[in-house]
User: Fold these one by one.
Assistant:
Number 1:
Amino acid sequence: MNTIISASVLNSDMSALGQELRRAENAGADWIHLDVMDGVFVDCITFGDYMIRALRPHSAIVFDTHLMVRDPSKLIVSFAKSGSDIITIHEESKCDHLSILKEIRSFGIKAGIAINPETPAERVFPYLEEVDMVLVMTVNPGYGGQGFIKETLPKITLIRNEAERRGLSELNIQVDGGINANTANAVKEAGANVLVAGTYLFKSSDMAEAVRELKVINN
Ligand code: DX5
Ligand code: ZN
């Protein structure tokens, strides 16, 4: 599988998000990763569907929306209509996951399920047929710029193997947190094909080179 790079704008210049997402696109990022935090599921509040709707005209790039919210049940309609191409909900959120994943797909967009570092891989198994992507958090959610938790690597492999066993060869496995040129190799070897990178891309002096590095390592 080709490696997909999803640029997280969390640690970009948030006062100029439209420009920042074009900068990532011009550097070769495939998707833009939009971290929505509600101040309950995690301690911070970032932005919501209004912001995503405002960003949509700035680029046609894939909008990869990561919902770190306590209960996404009432949010799917507005986030789908805001222009998200993928919406990922957390297994740890309090909701009826199966019906929400179906609702996301009913808008013709892709659905994802995420697990935090301490959540066992098996917890996403009931949803594998209902999702286009599994997000394995490689840091605890809430902040950019944290160190990669290497104990998450076996979970990526467990999920990839289970997907293969079920004939789900198209399943995207995304990793999020602490991804850089030193950690990209290990997550790809473990079975991930979508790499979220925030700090590494937005704080690099040459973003295009940084994107290339993440893509080519181990390819
Ligand atoms: C963390 C977010 C990540 C974060 C990754 O809660 O979900 O998307 O922006 O940032 P880096 O790449 O800096 O670890
Ligand atoms: Zn994220």
Number 2:
Amino acid sequence: MTKALVTGGAGFIGTHICDSLLSDGVAVVCFDNLGSGQRGNVNRFEDDDAYTFVEGDVREPLGQQLNELDTNFDYIYHFASRASPADFKDHALEISQTNTIGTKHVLELAREMDATVVYASTSEVYGDPKEHPQEESYRGNVSIRGPRAPYDEAKRFGETLCTMYTRQFGVDTRTVRIFNTYGPRMRSDDGRVVPTFCVQALQGDDLTVYGEGDQTRSFLFVDDLVRGVRTFAEHDELAGEVINIGHTDETTINEFANTVTRLSPNSIETVYQPLPEDDPTRRRPDITKAKSLLDWEPTIDLETGLKKTLEYFGTEVVNAHP
Ligand code: NAD
Ligand code: UDP
């Protein structure tokens, strides 16, 4: 039986990765400190014998924390890390250590077990990009001292560690640069634009657009992401590669607010609030590499994905705790 470790498996993307692996008959160990993860994302698998939850922290060596399991992993999906800009100040040290020291601990375990590592990097490594759309070869425009540095600089070094472990020790690592991904099981209060607008819309509150709302993002529905990540992990010849996974439809935050308003059950307004410092002005992936190496492209448009996400927040969050 194939065995996988999913760090950050109690978080939004991690829980969908666990789901997908379990459906394919893979035994899954979810490893998470429940910092930004949700207990409900663990409890949903409690009846599945192929699923084990270990509460732990990647900032400490993993071997000791996983000792009792006495198991070897074929794959490690390293998805642990808070990802919301709202956390970049108060959890700065934790985030930077999770992606640097934490990534080193994951790579050491993989080296010991001869496992394949898939590292969740981010479009943030491109910073406020001067090249558009962003290809994997673009080196980025990141502010090393800026408010997003605990996240984007740490992800950049996390990527460097992966390439070092591949070159120096022959560890099979693959890096996926994820562009804004959304869907059910996001935390309703994590501060990112999708859960924030969904909950505002469902409660009949004003949508809070930061700045003028003309900054852009490319929103990918989580099912498309998981398909891309799994395909990348399982293509033997792609060890050491880095691939962008994201949607190619680029949307301004005003357009995004208009779509949410249209789909909202309530009549709502938009209010404008100050733009956070260093908020990237635009972002869209070049997915030529994903298309050619993985035969992957997004299949779910924003409106379809948003309807599913609104439905989730409606039943699981807003109506569950009115
Ligand atoms: P999330 O906050 O929902 O999930 C992160 C999970 O990691 C949480 O369950 C949290 O408790 C856990 N975690 C954090 N630090 C940990 C630590 N030190 N030890 C153990 N567990 C820890 O965020 P998400 O959106 O699901 O993001 C998952 C991964 O994907 C992250 O690495 C993130 O940087 C990356 N990513 C996400 C997006 C996106 O749009 N959602 C975009 C780019 C990259
Ligand atoms: N944003 C917004 N209102 C909010 C939350 C975010 O207008 O309530 C904006 C934010 O300034 C950014 C975009 O939406 O330009 C995406 O923000 P998010 O935090 O989701 O992710 P980012 O891509 O910035 O990491």
Number 3:
Amino acid sequence: PRAGEAKAESRGVPFGAMIQSDYFRSDAAYRQAFLDHCDMIVPGAELKFDQIRPERDIWRLEPAETLVDFAMDNGRTSRGHTHVWWNSVPPWLEAITDRREGERVLIEHVERVTNHFRGKLLGWDVVNEVIAHDPIQEGPLRRSKWLQLLGPRHIPLAFEATARTDPAARLVVNDYDLEFVGPRFDARREIMLTIVRQMLDANIPVGGVGIQGHLYGDRQIDIDALTRFHKDLDALGVELLVTELDVINRESAPDPASMDALAGKLVGDLMDGIFAWKRPAAVVTWGITDRYTWIPDEMPRYDGEPHRPLPLDRDYRPKAWFEIL
Ligand code: XIL
């Protein structure tokens, strides 16, 4: 069996990874890594609003389609990431101030993109990072362009538009910082549950919650809180997925082996918390090889050494902790 299939069979959890168009084109070993290890792929940028619609009348769907077709042609699946994200608002959309126009743009976008990929994607991260970074300071929701323009109802509006266009897709609320010890993280978990409950009460089909799973070397996973969170979602009939797993370790470490040991501990704690209730619906890492990762651009290591965030090292050798997934 393919490695990815073996994983799904051994633990019953489909494994996927985020893929990037540019390296997909340039690096055959990168393409092969997906075939060797993944049940599922997730285009990392190609389905975001600003990538699809850099201008109001330009619709760029081909880059994502290439990746989705690659998955399908090889008997794999894909997930859609993401219709609504505060950080993928193009300037022309930023300039819109009329509420009705904003609503039309949102619905038109979600319907057209969802329809284009209908039947080809397992589901969508319909909204991404709508919870405030620090809800204790800022209130529950992030002050995004979409919130300013349409208020909290942009969330159910996006879900309804996705659901009516592709009723078979699993519709996910995706967010970060849902797995750690501390009041800010408790608050974020509570808000996620509230968002889900409110939508279900309004008969909006929320199928899943995505824990991004960007883990940090200097944070502790709240194993018990994660188990409770999973249990609470399950009671609502909502699945839990890990959607963007990687390990961000900025602190100095004596050698790669100790970095990998720390990563293994964090990933193990995350999985322990989730599995203590039941299997998650999927686990997806944000990339497959340390060669290509978003982390150094945003959060370089303090000692300047390369990050080791992903299941395969720079030479495509699996880390020991990949066995946990
Ligand atoms: C990142 C991509 O990896 C980058 O290539 C892109 O330029 C910016 O976005 N959380 C998310 C992802 O939900 O969409 C982000 O992806 C990483 C953080």
